[in-house]
Amino acid sequence: MIQPPGVPLRGGSIAMGKLRAWLWSRKWFVLAAITVVGIGGWQGALFFMGPEVAVDQAKRAQLIETVVATGSVQTPFRVLIGSQISGTVEEVQVDEGQRVTKGQKLVSLESHELVAAVDQAQAAVAQAEAHMTQLKDLTLPTARDALNQAQATFLNAQQSFSRAQELARTGNETRVVLDAAQKDLDVARTQVRSAELQVNTASPGGSDYVTGQTQLNQARALRVSASPRSLGLATRRSPRHAPAF
Fold this sequence. Notes:
Oligomer: single chain
CATH topology of one domain: Helix Hairpins
Strand order of the largest sheet: 1-3-4
Helix content: 55-70%
């Protein structure tokens, strides 16, 4: 509102103007006072209204309880797996703690040496059998023939010596002939003894026969222990339904 010139201001208007001027000169103080009063009023309202409480609506649900504890896990039973042979492990077919079925493969060993042992055992048996066949079919018959020949030679030498001895006694033969007949007789006797020894050693119960039969028995036993069935020992299987380890 514009006051006309020459018209005096009314008292209320003057007082209001002074008040406004005073407030404007102290506007920051007034603003701070209003802020303090506002905060105080807000805190007072909170005090009378009480603290704010978060409220959740109750609902029906399943209670889950979790228990944390320490302890050890024990299996109901334990199966120890061993091997009748020694060797290098080639493959492990199961994992620790895995459940296995009866007869399932667990561990495989390298079988190269076992296969070589089987071949060697079979070769030893074949060699021992061939030696026994040679004793029966060749050595013994040859030794018997040699004994018959030696016995015939010894008989002739014995007859020659008897004739030479009789002639030397009557003076119809020299000492040299008698000595030669004696030498031939000794040689023939030695040949008979050697032939008899060959026949005895090659016959059942003789040293060569017993040695050959022993070697054959040993070779057969080695073949049994190293037979192809023994190759199954290189693979260990589960004996029953149980954890592998």
